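[job 4471] stage=fold_predict status=RUNNING
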Amino acid sequence: MIKIIRTDSKNIHFVKLIEQLDAYLKITDGEDHTFYNQFNSIETIKHVVIVYINNTPVSCGAFKSYDKDTVEIKRMYTQTDYRGKGLASKIIQELEQWSKQLSYKACILETGKRQIEAIAFYKQMGYSAIANYGQYKNAENSICFKKLLV
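[job 4471] inference complete, writing structure tokens
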């Protein structure tokens, strides 16, 4: 049974999923991990979505306000054994819906160029590549995306 909840970054299940995500990224980011990790603190995140399968937390995502019209999607993760089941799509759709309910007009996000599956996923979900923004402006291994919320 699949259950989707909205919560915040204090949720212990979210914290544990993020620990798994960070361990995964430490490997895939390699020497760039320290640079990227500094922007991934969860203390300021107030909007978190978690997917549970049979009461086990297996996937998450979050957003935080970037400006008055835009949120930044953060901390998207699905445990390896549960990938390919459409859970990330459910997460991002819930994050987009929640953002719209809060009157935001767009979502932006950053992912690493080495995250081939993530890049394909975001394109599939209607996100378009944009110029790198904010702290990622000069990050050679970053690719940024944006989607307008209609």
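[job 4471] summary: The beta strands are 2-7, 47-53, 56-67, 70-78, 106-112, 128-130, 142-148.
[job 4471] exit 0
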